């Protein structure tokens, strides 16, 4: 019984021990200070292990850290114990915790770090801390002297049993000299604070930057653009199409022999080709399915980020994106499989594999390319081999089966085509048209307005990812996504109408590239941002920037593809319905009567009759 009692007491003590998971500490309990990475200030993603510089460790025994999430491993988080003994609410005076013995190589490393403005990152109770390695001092003669900070002063704010604030001050500059001994010191001061635990991350959120009046003005600008485009599309649908219908109805009321069918022009002339399956229909259906998948994932992740404040946890946003993409894979299979079935495609298994692997293969290929560069530079951004196997396993054992389920459901539930017009057996020749009606011109012009509605938000997103900002205004992002969807669909409706008026029925791929052109302009803006808004340099950071920016732009372009194709399909189902019912069937019946053929309801056979029986009931 006594042994059981001791074990019970030990178990209770283990439960009340504080750590960085429950964020509750008792007086005198250990507070762990983790060191993460070090690297050039202007190259945020070029990071190396903290102890790659010849820093010495503290005297306390080392504590191992395991990656808690997949997002941490992919982001290159490498937490190591600093070795500094820190106790909750216990002040520590200035104390030497180790002494560095600088060799010639070590001094050269520190000089290079100071010359390139190296900074380092630490974590205490999940709160990030940043510090600078040293400073370069230039004397009156222009000779540089490299100095490093050797003293760290921590001011830690606490509210009850919780840590709510951490500040680091680097002091005591010392010259970097080879074969010298440099003692490293630290001190800790605990300060009572009234900051609630739920608001301790507010100091890292730059409200003056993200909630600037320019941000609000960009939303207002995009909203006014939406009103203009919705009015323009309404004008096309309500006035232009109505005039077309009135003209065709007037022609219909004329005597059959007085009609001049050669004078008809415009979008009604291609009713038999407008729903023709596009070239490379397997690829097209896979891209549309992937676009639908990405769009749903973006909405889910933004909604979860608004409710859960994911920016407080390391790698949580990236982990949420991966989980949402894998869990929502049936959306990809359903959208792509149903569209491919409506096209009449028979290789649905190949389409399922292509749709499920299209975006993951591109992302993994780009990540592998960047990973080779990171391994060469010995950077922490190098993804471990086991992590890569984990991602591949998710693609094979989660995404593929769920995509198969979605494809089967899509083919059976909505895989039957119900077009308002019958597709001609022989494609209609496409006439020559003016240069501004060519698909290439429409593609180049069509992406400008959607890009204009989001480029301010793109600036804030780029600044938060490539600079030292934490993006937290996901409500803005949700509004921008909605405005982007409306603007893109309206622009596509206009481009589609212009293309069809030129009697060009290649609207599917044209709509595809109209949406993708928005991502093209975003990538051009990324090039401008790299050269004029940042001070990035070096081969590693350049490859990392343009590689992962291309992933962002490809995902954005594929998402816009869903919007433009769905909008074009809805528009074309509205416009040709009455066209086929009122105009073309009447024209076909008239032509049948002219040549002396009528189709009777009995058996669906054609009988040759004289022109005198043209009043007999016929069907189109």
Automatic annotation (TrEMBL):
<feature type="transmembrane region" description="Helical">
    <location>
        <begin position="353"/>
        <end position="379"/>
    </location>
</feature>
<comment type="similarity">
    <text>Belongs to the nonaspanin (TM9SF) (TC 9.A.2) family.</text>
</comment>
<dbReference type="GO" id="GO:0016020">
    <property type="term" value="C:membrane"/>
</dbReference>
<feature type="signal peptide">
    <location>
        <begin position="1"/>
        <end position="18"/>
    </location>
</feature>
<dbReference type="GO" id="GO:0072657">
    <property type="term" value="P:protein localization to membrane"/>
</dbReference>
<feature type="transmembrane region" description="Helical">
    <location>
        <begin position="474"/>
        <end position="500"/>
    </location>
</feature>
<feature type="transmembrane region" description="Helical">
    <location>
        <begin position="543"/>
        <end position="565"/>
    </location>
</feature>
<dbReference type="Pfam" id="PF02990">
    <property type="entry name" value="EMP70"/>
</dbReference>
<keyword id="KW-1133">Transmembrane helix</keyword>
<dbReference type="InterPro" id="IPR004240">
    <property type="entry name" value="EMP70"/>
</dbReference>
<feature type="transmembrane region" description="Helical">
    <location>
        <begin position="512"/>
        <end position="531"/>
    </location>
</feature>
<keyword id="KW-0472">Membrane</keyword>
<feature type="transmembrane region" description="Helical">
    <location>
        <begin position="282"/>
        <end position="305"/>
    </location>
</feature>
<feature type="transmembrane region" description="Helical">
    <location>
        <begin position="391"/>
        <end position="410"/>
    </location>
</feature>
<feature type="transmembrane region" description="Helical">
    <location>
        <begin position="440"/>
        <end position="462"/>
    </location>
</feature>
<feature type="transmembrane region" description="Helical">
    <location>
        <begin position="317"/>
        <end position="341"/>
    </location>
</feature>
<protein>
    <recommendedName>
        <fullName>Transmembrane 9 superfamily member</fullName>
    </recommendedName>
</protein>
<feature type="transmembrane region" description="Helical">
    <location>
        <begin position="216"/>
        <end position="238"/>
    </location>
</feature>
<keyword id="KW-0812">Transmembrane</keyword>
<keyword id="KW-0732">Signal</keyword>
